Amino acid sequence: MKKLACLLLAILFVCSLSAPVSAENVEPDTTITLNVYNWGEYIDPSVTDLFTEETGIKVNYKNFTDNESMYAVLSSGAASYDIVVPSDYMVGKLIQEGMLAKLDFNNIPNFKYINADFKNLEYDPDNAYSVPYTWGTVGIFYNTKYVKEEDLAQGWDLLWDENYSGRIFMFDNQRDAFGIALNKLGYSMNTPDPAHWDAAYEALVEQKPLLHQYVMDQVFDKMINEEGWIAPYYSGDGIIMMDEEEGNPAIDFFVPESGTNRFVDALCVPASSPHKREAEMYINFLCRTDIALMNAEYIGYSTPHVEAQQLLDPEIGQNENFYPPEEILKKTEIFLTLPQETGAYMDQLWMRLKLADPRWGIFTAVVGVLAVGFLGLFVVRFFKKRRKR
Amino acid sequence: MMRSKTAAAPFALWMTLFTVIPLGIVLWFAFTDEQGQFTLSNLSSIGEYAGTFGLSIFLGAIATVICLVLAFPLAFTISRAKGRKQQTMVMIIMLPMWMNFLLRTYAWMSLLENNGFINQFLRVIGVLADGQSVSLINTNGAIVLGMVYNFLPFMVLPLYSVMVKIDNSVIEAAQDLGSNVFQVFGRVVLPLSLPGMLSGITMVFVPAVSTFVITKLLGGSKTLMIGDAIETMFIGQGANYHVGATLSLVLMVLILVCMAITGMVDKEGEGDAA
After folding, report:
1. How many whole angstroms separate alpha carbon A309 and alpha carbon A305?
2. Is the pTM higher than 0.95?
């Protein structure tokens, strides 16, 4: 059935190529307002104004902070959105649950500018529901003042290097932390094998005493003021750390050759959207070269738009750290939704990693004994008093 | 009698809606599994957290003791001060509480960091060589420090409010009867300020045991305290409401036991005085 649908879609696609203006295409209604739901700081604000100026369609722009909260809002039906920008694994989940509308690529001719490496990815194998918007990788930020150039060859093992003990940061979220440990050990980041996860857990236990701390957003401040020297982080966000003015120019970035996690955020239209035609128009607009360039410059994440990448400042657009060469890109993995039991096992291991030494339990025991003792005392007294009466 | 009951009705309603019912929900979550079936497996899985409970109790107790040691002489000095001066001193104690709790903890972070003010100062006066640093942040000591700093006023204020009622003539009487400084303290001041001490201990120990922000900011998120464990069970990827509810239930029982113990000591103290 799925194959048939693919075939039909392919035929449709080919037909549409030969006849770009389909007769039954509805004209967009320019009096409406599009509701866009996107990450914070994830679009150049003037792009929205330009769109309204050119088409007359107003845009109501809302932000979310993570995929899970976006999913919660979307699935509860509390609000109706016309465009959402979930990450890879969440796109897959939304497709599975039938929450996304199939896009009509006739209305998105600018899709042709999207790099072929970002089409038909695992989460949307036929590329029927999503248009890649931005992407990035996880790599290691390091301070060139303290970290020796030759140590970088270790790849992820740099995060386990005892010479830098106390100066290393690690992700404070289980998926990214385990992803690094799994890749370091040569396993897939999406492995369902518990033995692989156990091995990754052991590696993280070994790493813990070397860490300055587990960290997320605070990594910016702490790397910039040289509190620590080595931190794995997302390429696009981390670029701020290297900024000449706001950041610390001594900080550099590299992607380990053994591979890493690649993430893609994609433009999608929820199945519940009443303005699919206009939403596609908006997506097409975002894929126009000048607009994609504006956004790429503003957001800092890598763009899948071929022409925009070429027009970018060569220091970024031709930078192998942000646009890794083919052979590294091949080794990257996209996070897939883990099977339920694997996800639960990962959470459990992560918790165990962070729990205090069981020997501290002695205090729990002491308090328990005290509590029982006092309770006993209380009961004995209570009965004595009663007897007196 | 009837009238006072009517007056309490709004509060009773409030309590039912926002305390009793939520408590019931916590109980329900603690004793059910994902399918809503009754289970004790949550409770038995708590064993893994024994160490975390222990660490929380240990650090909380240390912070409480330090607070008590610091607050006792301070509260006594304030209570003996005269009029205006007394008010000013109380205000100074309250002053840090006007600032946001998070902000204050962040401030400690920049004091304790490897390149923080304390380490920089030590480098300037030559105690440390350039590039060297004492590791202050992300240790259990830093967590205790954060607790003491944040919860000290909760120890000082109840102590002060009890001590201010101790009449100077009582102390003078003890002195006239030949008590030395230690005897005055041990046999007069200490017993009379016991109720303040106990409520101070409760007010510091309870939030200290269940704190979670301080551990994250000053402890580097490396070792969870029980508050953090509960937080992660309710927020984020690894959320499991059932285990989280069980953890909070155990914490609640623990706090209840602590309060019962202090309550009993309190009653005994009164008994002795009578």
Report:
1. 6
2. no
